[in-house]
């Protein structure tokens, strides 16, 4: 990896006293909030994630009192954190190994929620809110591997809904584990009666047995299922008591309904019970856990992963999800049977494509516009700056849209998982 140096133009510091207020970046300058504060989630292959809480003026290093981080290449006083009205900044303190943010070696650079920070050989993900939710041992459910926050955000909610007898729609991009989670959730109801699996992605038209009355409908890729089959399932559910549907969609259910891929009466069966599995790019703290699992299953030694390679794997977008990540790791291992794995054979997989501005809802549909803005803020953990990047909008445009829709995002809090 070529070394680059980024020096952001310093904005004049304000001399006014800092009050206990929340900055628009989502970072609190002088206090820890009730949601668990902000800071770094330290990640790696040899240890579970752990959190380091930060405050304005905190010094990070192996001898620091505020942000103590130990490890190879970390100086006693390695970097300093400062929070200003335009965001949070990290400044390297003239260290040998440097401070890296999103693959760029920086003297002083702004950081936002989800940015990947490397100090020496130690990787971390910068988190602006709910830092305490990231603290905890990683878990496994079948083939799914996930950290503490993800368990609280989407694993536990899906299982609780299914155990209570509710129907649930699991949304997510390819390869994030939604079909696996749906099958695991359906297994919870095996004792109640038959489970009928309908796969909308099958090459042939899925057939529903005449007179089928299962207690659980497992509808995979429901947004690709023909509408007549959706209607048939809806009628069957309406004629029986205690029947649940566990469905998956490759896009948000409201968008699928708006695009005509899901019939409104089928979507209404979920009564708003939708759980979204975020992409790997949105849960970067889980990537080392998944990489370790892939390495163990493919007999690849963990000592072959350099800090630079792991950083590149964490930073990549992975639009194909876990299968794409596994393919890249196996390819790198095959290209170098012995010794450290190289970035070169998988550089194409690591490259992140250009950010495409999504199709925004029309101004004539305020309810859908509000739902999508709320969804973007939830995915960004409440950070306006991160939500703006995801939507391809400026922060000012986000605030104008929120004002138009009557959404108070200045004091908005993301609910706990």
The termini sit apart by: 38 Å
Proportion of residues in β-strands: 15-25%
Portion in helices: 25-40%
Biggest sheet statistics: 11 strands, mixed
What can you see in these coordinates?
Residues 41-106 form the FHA domain. Residues 224-334 form the Sigma-54 factor interaction domain. Keywords: ATP-binding, Nucleotide-binding. This is Sigma-54 dependent transcriptional regulator. InterPro entries: FHA_dom, Homeodomain-like_sf, HTH_Fis, P-loop_NTPase, Sigma_54_int, SMAD_FHA_dom_sf. This protein has 417 residues and is of the alpha/beta class. It has three domains: 5-134, Tumour Suppressor Smad4 (Sandwich), CATH 2.60.200; 139-277, Rossmann fold; 280-350, Helicase, Ruva Protein, domain 3 (Orthogonal Bundle), CATH 1.10.8. The protein is 29% helix and 19% strand. It has twelve helices and 18 strands. The strands form three sheets. Strands 1, 2, 3, 4, 5, 6, 7, 8, 9, 10 and 11 form an eleven-stranded mixed beta sheet that branches. A five-stranded parallel beta sheet has the order 15-16-17-14-18, with helices on one face. A hairpin with a 2-residue loop joins β12 and β13 (144-146). α6 (287-297) packs across α8 (321-335) and α10 (366-379) crosses α12 (395-405). It is globular and about 70 Å long. The two termini are 38 Å apart. Mean pLDDT is 84; it is low at 1-24, 354-363 and 411-417.
Summarize the structure.
The chain is an alpha/beta fold.
């Amino acid at each position: 990896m070529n070394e680059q140096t980024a020096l952001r133009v310093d904005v004049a510091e304000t001399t006014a006293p800092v009050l206990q207020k929340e900055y628009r970046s989502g970072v609190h300058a002088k206090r820890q909030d009730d949601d668990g504060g902000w800071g770094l989630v330290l990640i790696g292959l040899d240890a579970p994630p752990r959190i380091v809480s930060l405050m304005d003026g905190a010094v990070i290093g192996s001898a620091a009192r505020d942000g103590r981080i130990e490890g190879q290449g970390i100086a006693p006083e390695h970097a300093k954190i400062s929070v200003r009205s335009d965001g949070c900044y990290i400044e390297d303190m003239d260290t040998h190994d440097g401070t890296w943010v999103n693959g760029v070696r920086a003297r002083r650079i702004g950081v936002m929620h989800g940015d990947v920070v490397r100090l020496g050989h130690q990787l971390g993900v910068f988190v602006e809110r709910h830092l305490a939710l990231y603290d905890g041992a990683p878990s496994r459910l079948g083939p799914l591997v996930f950290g503490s926050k993800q368990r609280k955000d989407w694993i536990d909610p899906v299982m609780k809904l299914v155990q209570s007898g509710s129907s649930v729609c699991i949304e997510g991009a390819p390869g994030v584990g939604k079909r696996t989670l749906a099958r695991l959730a359906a297994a919870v109801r095996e004792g109640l009666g038959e489970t009928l699996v309908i796969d909308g992605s099958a090459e042939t038209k899925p057939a529903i047995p005449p007179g089928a009355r299962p207690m659980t409908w497992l509808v995979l890729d429901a947004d690709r299922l023909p509408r007549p089959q959706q209607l048939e399932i809806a009628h069957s559910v309406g004629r029986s008591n205690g029947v649940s549907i566990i469905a998956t969609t490759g896009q948000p259910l409201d968008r699928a309904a708006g695009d005509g891929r899901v019939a409104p009466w089928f979507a209404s069966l979920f009564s708003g019970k939708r759980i979204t599995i975020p992409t790997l790019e949105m849960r970067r703290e889980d990537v080392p856990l998944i990489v370790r699992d892939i390495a163990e299953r493919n007999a690849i030694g963990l000592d072959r992963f350099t800090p630079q390679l792991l950083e590149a794997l964490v930073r990549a977008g992975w639009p194909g999800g876990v299968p794409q990540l596994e393919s890249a790791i196996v390819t790198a291992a095959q290209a170098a049977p012995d010794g450290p794995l190289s970035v070169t054979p998988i550089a194409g997989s690591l490259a992140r494509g250009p950010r495409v501005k999504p199709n925004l809802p029309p101004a004539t549909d305020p309810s859908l516009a509000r739902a999508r803005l709320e969804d973007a803020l939830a995915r960004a953990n409440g950070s306006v700056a991160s939500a703006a990047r995801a939507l391809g909008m400026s922060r000012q445009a986000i605030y104008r849209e929120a004002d138009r829709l009557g959404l108070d995002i200045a004091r908005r809090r993301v609910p706990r998982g």
